[in-house]
Amino acid sequence: MRLFPENAAAQLEFNKITGLLAAHCRSDHAKQKAIKLRIHTKKEFIRLELQQSYEYLQLFQHQQYFPNDHVFNLSKKLHLLKIPGAILSGEEIMEIRLLTESIEKIFRWFHAERVAAYPGLHSLLQETWYEKQIIEWIDQVLDERGQVRDHASPALKEIRQQLFKKRQELRKLFDRIVSRLNKQGFLAEIEESFLNGRRVVAVTAEQKRAIKGILHGESDSRKSAFIEPEETIELNNQIYELENAERKEVYRLLQLLTAQLSVHATLLQVYHEKLGEYDFIRAKAKLAQDYRGEYPQVEDRSFVRIVEARHPLLLLHNNKQEKPTTPITVTLEDSQRILLISGPNAGGKTVTMKTIGLLQLMVQSGLLVPVHPTSIFGIFKQLMIHIGDTQSIEFELSTYSSHLLHMKHFIEEGNGRTLFFIDELGSGSDPSLGGAFAEVILQELLKRHAIGVVTTHYLNLKLMAGKTPGIMNGAMAFDEKNLRPLYKLIVGKPGSSYTFAIAERIGMDPTLIQRARSLVDEDQYRLDKLLNRAEQDMRKIEQQSQALQQTLIS
C-alpha cells in the first residue's frame, strides 16, 4: 500500500500496534516481521493471514496445544552449513536436531481432522516436508547431551578404551604415591591437583626438592609446590597423546556430520522460517486476545462497513482504567463515499477518523480487529492522511499553505482505490475563503471516486454534505446538560459545535455571549441552534427507546 505522507502510518499510531505485536514475538524472525509489518493489497494474502491469525486464536480459546514450544534464532548457525569446511559444535548441532524435531511434531499434529479444521495454519507446510534422515545422522554421532558417542567411529571407540585403561592405571599409581608422601608428611593441605592438563601432587615448599619429578608451579602464597612425580610422567604423556587423538577424531566426526547436514541446509532454513512464521501468527493471536479482535469479511473493492468498531489502543487504555469504550458503526461505499464529521472540540471526531484508518491498515496487514464479525473491509491501494498542524519551517510554509499542498497531492493522486482522512478541512485561513476552497476540494475528491472521512466545523460544508450525492453528514453526540462528549458517532445528520451552549454552561458573562451572537449571521446562528436542538431530541428519543426495550424484556 502507498502511504502519504511517509509518516501516515505513525499518524494513525500503526507503529504502536506493531510495537505491541513485536512484544508478543519470541523469535527474531517473528520480531522482524512485526516491526516491518507489511500492508498487503492482494485479497488472497490478506484473507490467508487473517485466517491464520483467527485459527491460532481459536486454539487459545479452545485451550488446544500447538507444538511450537521452542524459540529458535539459528540464522547464523544455519548460514555456516552453506560454507564448505565449516564445523558446528555438538551443542549447535543439537539445536538443529531440536529444530527438526519441532517441525516433525507440527507435521504429526496435523492429522486429517486438524487439516480440515485449521487449513490456514496447515498451508505453511504445503511446500516443505519432514526429512527424518537429519535426526538419524545426528543420533548416530551425538548423544542427548551433544557429546560425540564412543561408537561414532571404530577409531574413537579404540582411543577411548585406551584412555580409560591408562587413566585407571594412573589413578592407582597416583593413589600409591599420594599415600606414601602423606605418610612422610610432605603433602600440603590440598594434596593433589591438575595443572596444564597433568595430574600433580601439592607438597610443602620446603620439601619440593625431596621429590623427583617436574615442577609445574607454586601457589600464590608460595607455601605449596605442584610436582608431577617421576613415576607418572610416562603415563601422563600417553594419556596426553590419547586425549589429543580423541580431540582430533571428535573434530573430524563433527566436521563430517556438519558436511552431511549441509546437504539439507536449504531445507533446515525453511524449517527455521516456518517455525518463525508460526511464532509470528501466535503473536498476532495473542495481540487479538488483548483487545478481543475478530475476523471480519474482506472484499476486493473500495468499501468499508465497520460495525461496533473500537480503537484498539483506546480500548486497551480504557480497559486498564475500567472505563467503557464507545463503538462506532459506519459504511463508506459508492453511493456514500465521503463522511463529513462535525461536532464540538474534544468530542471524538479525530479519534473516530483514526479508528477507521488504523483498523483498515491492521486488516490489510492480516491483524484481527476489535469489530463485530459482520464488518466488511474493502482493499485500498493507497491511503492519504492530513491531521494536525503541518506548518513547515524548512520550506517556509504556513499551516494553511502546507494544508493546501497536501490537498493538491490528494486531488492529483486520489482515485477509486484511495482511502483518505482530512482533519479540519479548510482550517488555518479565513473561514469564508477556507470554506469555499474546502468545498472545491471535496468536490474534486468525489469526482475521483476516492473514499474518505473529513472533520470540520464549517457550516457551508455541512450544508454541502446535506445536498451533495456521495457525501454524508455525521455528528459526534454531546451531552449539552452536563457539557460532556459522548464519543458516539451519529451518521446522517450534521453536528453543532455547541459554541454558545458551552459558553453559557461554564458561566461566561451573558453580555459577552450576546455580543458574540450579534456578530454572527442570524441564519447561521439559527441553523446551529436547530442542529443543537435536533441532536438533543434524538438523544432523548434513543433513551426512551432503550427504556421501552428494557420494559418489554422484563
Report on the structure:
This protein is α/β, with parallel strands linked by helices and about 550 residues long. About 50% of the residues lie in helices and about 15% in strands. It contains 20 helices and 15 strands. The strands form 3 sheets. A 7-stranded mixed sheet has the order 1-11-12-13-9-14-15, sandwiched between helices. α16 links the parallel β12 (about 420) and β13. The longest helix is centred in the C-terminal third of the chain and has 32 residues, at about 520-554. About 35% of the residues are buried.
Number of helices: 20
Multimerization status: single chain
The radius of gyration over CA amounts to 38 Å
- Write out the strand line-up for the largest beta sheet, numbering strands in chain order: 1-11-12-13-9-14-15
* Mean pLDDT, all residues: 86
Strand content: 15-25%
Which structural class should the secondary elements be placed in?
A: alpha/beta
Roughly how much helix do the residues carry, as a percent range?
Answer: 40-55%
Low-confidence stretches: 390-397
Straight-line distance between termini: 51 Å
What is the molecular shape? elongated
Tally of strands: 15
- Largest beta-sheet details: 7 strands, mixed
Quick summary of this structure?
With 554 residues, the protein is of the alpha/beta class. The protein has helices at 8-11, 14-24, 28-35, 43-61, 75-80, 90-109, 112-117, 119-122, 133-141, 154-184, 233-262, 265-291, 312-320, 349-364, 399-413, 431-447, 459-467, 499-505, 510-518, 522-553, and strands at 2-4, 187-195, 198-204, 213-218, 224-229, 297-298, 304-309, 328-332, 336-342, 376-377, 382-386, 418-422, 451-455, 470-479, 484-491.
